[in-house]
């Protein structure tokens, strides 16, 4: 965990007392993340730790910002979209491609879904290498 994001001790499960892993959620300062409803949700889940980035510092959440930029330029800005349903469909198509089809350099050319499901190790490539057969 980055030291500038703060830490939170592991929380005990309310019924079993088992220590729960802490998941840090990093967001910007948008309205949805400052709402009472969101704060209540975070408070009701001791395994969650919410950290807001500093105002006007999108670089603190750079991978998310980069993801939105890629979505815009690879899908949404290709042509004019006049229909909200078409917009949602394009965004969903991109999400599926990004997480299930496209390999990512940061996780050793694996796909995020495979890493998330434990089917691939983010430090070991699983793609097939080209086999070079002997010539004699």
TrEMBL record:
It comes from Brachybacterium nesterenkovii. One of its GO terms (biological process) is DNA integration. It comes from the Bacteria. GO terms for molecular function: nucleic acid binding. Residues 24-120 form the Integrase catalytic domain. This is Mobile element protein.
